[in-house]
Amino acid sequence: MNGTERSAIRAGLQVDIVLKQDQRTGKLIRGVVKDILTNSPNHPHGIKVRLTDGQVGRVKQIIAGE
């Protein structure tokens, strides 16, 4: 699943995100969602989230649920 729909993302999901500085390279970071930072119901580049380790980026792929 991709991460463009806010309704598909919730705290506790394991996701792959791309950090702001890695947007050109597309390097992905895997982590667990702590907070959802995007308020709109969808975003073409991915919903912005904060991971449990504090990193912030846009969701590119949802891996697994709780």
Automatic annotation (TrEMBL):
Superkingdom per UniProt: Bacteria
Pfam family, one: DUF2196
Family matches, as InterPro entries: DUF2196
PANTHER family: YWBE PROTEIN
Protein name as annotated: YwbE family protein
Organism phylogeny: Bacteria, Bacillati, Bacillota, Bacilli, Bacillales
